[in-house]
Amino acid sequence: MDYHPELPSHEEFIYNSAAAKGGTQLVLIDPDTLQETELTVFEENKWDFRSAWSPQGDQIAFVRYRVGQPNEIWVMNADGTEPIKLTTGYQGQGSDFPVWLSR
Fold first, then answer.
1. Residue 50: which residues within 8 A CB-CB, separation 6 or more?
2. How many whole angstroms separate alpha carbon 98 and alpha carbon 73?
3. C-alpha torsion 8→10→13→17, nearest 10
4. What is the pLDDT of residues 34-68, one digit of tens each?
5. Cα–Cα distance between 76 and 48 in angstroms, integer?
6. Domain-wise residue ranges, the chain
7. d(Cα 38, Cα 87) in Å, to the nearest integer?
8. What pTM was estimated for this model as a whole?
9. Share of the chain above pLDDT 70, in %
10. Is the distance from CB of 62 to CB of 48 less than 8 angstroms?
């Protein structure tokens, strides 16, 4: 975020994607043993977040963002295997907040 004091108080911080650093990955944590299981691989400038378990518990949908790219929705098996990109949204403009719908 870049600070711009000349802007109104609700707009003084502006996201600067060129300055973005870090990343996130999806990790399962067993609450009893605190054992961690990595589901996605950590990579600099890649954020995996907003995970949603399928109703059957066998798959996880999540959002992946890479600096300078639109958000993507991915799905993978609950153990992290077979990740597949589903969409970058309507006309490639980005997609967010995956939700599983029951039939």
1. 62, 63, 96, 97, 98
2. 7
3. -120
4. 999 999 999 999 999 999 999 999 999 999 999 88
5. 12
6. 22-103
7. 23
8. 0.79
9. 81
10. yes
